[in-house]
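Moderator note: this is an archived Q&A kept for reference. The question asked for a predicted structure of one protein chain; the sequence and the answer are reproduced below.
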Amino acid sequence: MTFTFRTVDPLKDGELLYSWLTHPKAAFWMMQDAKPEEVERAYMEIAADEHHHALFGLRDGEPAFLMEKYDPAHRELAGLYEARPGDIGMHFLTPATDAPEHGFTKAVITAVMAHLFEDPAVERVVVEPDVGNKAVHALNAAVGFVAEREIDKPEKRALLSFCTREQFEKAVTA
């Protein structure tokens, strides 16, 4: 599967974001009860933030998944671990579908990681999924993430995990 990326436009993409983020499958994004204007506002804030970026992964030119990347020294994990130069944080969401495609989510996380590591300044990807999100833990491990420890964030108990460029390359070429 081949994906390209484009920046989310909160005004143009608000309806699609709302449908994805408020779906029960997206429970770990904690926006289930959000109103359309709240989703739009959240992504307007991201669009204005130099340390946080939202992108769509496109398949045949159409949004197929959402990814966010952020500077963990300034957002999400600031003060919760010792950030290193070259760290980048990441979230991704594959939308709910009536026709699941075998291997799609693994292809998505692989594409997200490859996209992040295209930046030569990125040395390590940091994630902090909910400790209860076992499906994402398995996907993270499949692309080279190693869990370090559980941490308490204001909104959840999270599993802090890291993946270096070398760990990713080894995992996807194995």
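Archived answer notes: The two ends are 18 Å apart (CA to CA).
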